[in-house]
From TrEMBL:
The gene is mscL. GO terms for molecular function: mechanosensitive monoatomic ion channel activity. Belongs to the MscL family. Pfam families: MscL. PROSITE patterns: MSCL. InterPro entries: Mechanosensitive_channel_CS, MS_channel, MSC/AndL, MscL_channel. It comes from the Bacteria. Homopentamer. Keywords: Cell membrane, Ion channel, Ion transport, Membrane, Transmembrane, Transmembrane helix, Transport. It comes from Salinibacterium amurskyense. This is Large-conductance mechanosensitive channel. NCBIfam families: mscL (TIGR00220). One of its GO terms (cellular component) is plasma membrane. Channel that opens in response to stretch forces in the membrane lipid bilayer. May participate in the regulation of osmotic pressure changes within the cell.
Length: 136
């Protein structure tokens, strides 16, 4: 049982995944800071709000004296944050990896496969035709 666990932990995929999670968490903190410190105030200024998180409020009256407020700006901030993460991941990780794979594929020698011979059905048809020709 322990040997199976040890084999699982020492597999390269698990270690790569652990590194990705740690880097992803650190990267998320950077993106969150950029969104909250730069983009939220800029877009919030467009809506005359302190930040995007308090922009576009929708006040819902309740039965009591308190009111419930929905901030659609916070949703917009989350969408912006997601898009920024996606853009940075694509341009910092995916695009360079695709380019590196393209270069590696270009350096590989091209393997020319020999032409495939006739199929079994085609050979049987040729034999049939030759036998019919010999018998006639």
């Amino acid at each position: 049982m322990l040997s199976g666990f040890k084999a699982f932990i020492l597999r390269g995929n698990v270690i790569d995944l652990a590194v990705a999670v740690v880097i992803g968490a650190a990267f998320t903190a950077v993106v969150n800071t950029i969104v909250e410190a730069v983009f939220n105030p800029l877009i919030g200024a467009l809506f005359n709000a302190e930040s995007l998180a308090t922009a576009l409020p929708l006040v819902i009256p309740t039965a009591g004296e308190a009111e419930a407020t929905i901030y659609f700006g916070a949703v917009i901030a989350a969408i912006i944050q997601f898009l920024l993460v996606a853009v940075v991941v694509y341009f910092a990780i995916v695009a360079p990896m695709n380019y590196a794979n393209k270069l590696a594929d270009a350096r590989k020698p091209k393997v020319v496969e020999p032409e495939a011979g006739p199929t079994e059905a085609e050979l049987l048809l040729q034999i049939r035709d030759l036998l019919a020709k010999q018998n006639s």
